[in-house]
Amino acid sequence: MELSERQEKIIEIVKGNGPITAEKIAGQLNLSRATLRPDLTILTMAGYLEARPRVGYFHTGKTGSELLTQQIQKYTVKEFQSVPVVVKEDNSVYDAIYALFLEDVGTLFVVDNHSCLIGVLSRKDLLRASIGKQDLNKVPVHMIMTRMPNVTVCHHDDLLIEAAQKLITKQIDGLPVIKETENGPKVIGRVTKTTVTKVFVELVNGNQI
């Protein structure tokens, strides 16, 4: 979060004089309390300042990076997961390639007749399958997919930072978000590197997520 020059001055005043009332802060800046109110609200919500009734504002002592880390660690997968793109296990490799480019995704999730996850297909899997003379309309995706339990997954209540760590560690583009059912793990969403990147960029820029 990038602070304005006035917000930086407010923090310095509170650091040196806290606890201090809004009226006294406004007086030092030659501003009205009404003018100062939005800045104090932002700084309090962001965690730089803390307000106590009838006492005033004081500095929390936290840096911007510390506050950013704390905020990131609160986010869960369910807040940012998107709609998964799935194919049936008996679909052809040709159909999968078509779906990949039509939906503009990097990973397809393969499901059985119960809509439960049985494997994943990456761009690399489909590229390897397309090299050669085999008829892609006749090769089912279950012949080339990465099968369970060798698929890295996440759950909707996992922390987003944990999902991001899995993407980095496994060097993959996307994770299926699953929900356990009687028939097996059902795909209910997806989290990708793009998802995580957008969240972090918006957060660093101080935008509301």
Biggest sheet layout: 4 strands, mixed
Kindly, what is the distance between the CA atoms of the first and last residues, rounded to a whole number of angstroms?
12 Å
Q: What sequence of helices (H) and strands (E) makes up the elements? A: HHHEEHEHEEHEEHEEH
CATH class of the largest domain: Alpha Beta
The value of Rg in angstroms is 25 Å
Spatial strand arrangement across the major sheet: 3-4-5-6
What's the mean pLDDT score?
A: 89
Q: What is the domain total for the residues?
A: 2
| CATH topology heading of the largest domain | CBS-domain
The CATH superfamily of the largest domain is identified as: CBS-domain
Q: Helix amount, in percent? A: 40-55%
Q: Which percent band covers the strand fraction? A: 15-25%
Count of alpha and pi helical runs = 8
Instruction: Report the structural category.
Output: alpha/beta
> How many E-type strands?
9
- What is the CATH-assigned architecture of the largest domain? Roll
Gross morphology: elongated
Poorly predicted sequence stretches spanning 5 or more consecutive residues: none
Model description:
41% of the residues lie in helices and 21% in strands. By secondary structure, it is α/β, with parallel strands linked by helices. It folds into two domains: 5-63, Winged helix-like DNA-binding domain superfamily/Winged helix DNA-binding domain (Arc Repressor Mutant, subunit A, Orthogonal Bundle), CATH 1.10.10; 77-200, CBS-domain. Strand 4 and strand 5 form a beta hairpin.
Brief account:
This protein is 41% helix and 21% strand. The chain contains 8 helices and 9 strands. The chain is elongated and about 80 Å long.
